[in-house]
């Protein structure tokens, strides 16, 4: 063999070996399959090739698979609502993907658009690359099934406006369990519900219902505000009545205490009179009865509204109890 041929073979071999050089970017991890077998560590985990320039046996002995493990990917399900000024510019129902239509538990059809954010699990890159032929397609079908089940469990009002947080949480949990059970090598980061809107043919009627519901909420808030106002006024009036009653109670208590004190003084005077002669006792008793009689007569005449007119100036004897 001539030297020229040897040189050519050497150059060809060197060029062939140089094809074994490969570059792994900073946001990538690489797996190497040598003769179809995945290279692993001593512990059995896939050997991850870090960023940089590396060399291995050239093709067909070695195949390098690169994966962006830090990239958050977005899977979109459904068609977002088309906003337009004129109503005739809305897309007809048949142009909307069937995958964006979901049936609620009360038999209403709603169009939905939501996204699933996910990334490749760095510790399970081999599952992502070799565990399934199309992991994204499996994830899409699982997302559609999870949302279908969630909507079927709910009513149209809950799905359209009230229950976005609950729907998101339900789908997120379902997808997390799915990727674990199916060994897809993915990590679900988040689920976001973009829009929920009715079919175009019933959009006007649906908006009327929503406006009526908004009016109902407004009336409810107004009624509650009026009820709170009336309740505050009633409480103030009740407090005023309680204050007046308390003042009247104090006044009556003071009057009763004064009356009791006066009566005790009369009793004391009678008790003192018993130590004197019989005439003094009788005189004191007569004075006490007369005083009690005058007090009672005063309280009675104070409530009399009828006036008595006398022809002469002679006094009128109103005595009921004659002294003994």
What does this structure look like?
The chain is α+β, with helices and mostly antiparallel strands and 324 residues long. The protein has three domains: 3-68, no CATH class; 73-198, Band 7 domain (Tetrahydropterin Synthase, Chain A), CATH 3.30.479.30; 235-324, no CATH class. It has helices spanning 3-18, 125-131, 135-152, 156-162, 164-181, 203-273, 278-301; strands at residues 21-24, 28-34, 37-38, 52-55, 62-68, 73-77, 101-103, 109-120, 186-197. Helix 3 crosses helix 5 (164-181) and helix 6 packs antiparallel against helix 7. It starts with a helix and ends in a 23-residue tail after the last helix. Mean pLDDT is 80; it is low at 83-93.
Helix content: 40-55%
| Tally of structural domains | 3
SSE arrangement, N to C: HEEEEEEEEHHHHEHH
CATH architecture of the largest domain: 2-Layer Sandwich
| CATH H-level superfamily title of the largest domain | Band 7 domain
Rounded to an integer in angstroms, the radius of gyration calculated over CA atoms is: 50 Å
Mean pLDDT: 80
Give the N-to-C terminal Cα separation. Answer: 172 Å
Please state the overall shape, judged from the principal axes of the Cα atoms.
rod-shaped
Describe the largest sheet.
4 strands, antiparallel
- Counting H and I runs of at least 4 residues, what is the number of helices? 7
Uncertain segments are: 83-93
């Amino acid at each position: 063999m001539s030297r020229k041929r040897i040189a050519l073979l050497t150059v060809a071999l060197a060029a062939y070996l140089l094809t074994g050089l490969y570059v792994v970017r900073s946001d990538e991890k690489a797996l190497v399959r040598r003769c179809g077998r995945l290279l692993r560590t001593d512990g059995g985990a896939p050997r991850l090739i870090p960023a940089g320039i590396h060399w291995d046996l050239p093709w067909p002995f070695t195949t390098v698979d690169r994966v962006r493990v830090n990239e958050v990917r977005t899977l979109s399900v459904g068609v977002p609502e088309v906003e337009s000024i004129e109503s005739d510019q809305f897309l007809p129902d048949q142009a909307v993907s069937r995958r964006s239509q979901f049936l609620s538990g009360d038999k209403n059809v709603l169009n939905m658009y939501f996204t699933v954010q996910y990334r490749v699990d760095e510790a399970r890159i081999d599952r992502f690359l070799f565990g399934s032929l199309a992991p994204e397609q499996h994830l899409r079908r699982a997302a559609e099934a999870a949302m279908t089940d969630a909507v079927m469990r709910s009513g149209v009002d809950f799905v359209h406006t009230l229950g976005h947080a609950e729907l998101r949480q339900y789908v997120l949990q379902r997808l997390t369990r799915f990727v674990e059970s199916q060994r897809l090598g993915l990590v679900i980061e988040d689920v976001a519900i973009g829009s929920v809107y009715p079919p175009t043919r019933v959009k006007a009627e649906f908006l009327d219902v929503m406006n009526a519901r908004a009016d109902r909420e407004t009336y409810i808030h107004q009624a509650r505000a009026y009820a709170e106002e009336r309740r505050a006024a009633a409480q103030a009036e009740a407090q005023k009545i309680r204050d007046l009653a308390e003042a009247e109670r104090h006044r009556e208590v003071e009057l009763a205490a004064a009356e009791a004190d006066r009566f005790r003084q009369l009793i004391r005077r009678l008790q003192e009179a018993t130590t004197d002669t019989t005439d003094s006792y009788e005189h004191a008793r007569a004075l006490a009865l007369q005083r009690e009689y005058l007090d009672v007569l005063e309280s009675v005449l104070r409530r009399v509204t009828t006036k008595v007119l006398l022809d002469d100036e002679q006094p009128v004897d109103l005595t009921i109890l004659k002294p003994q």
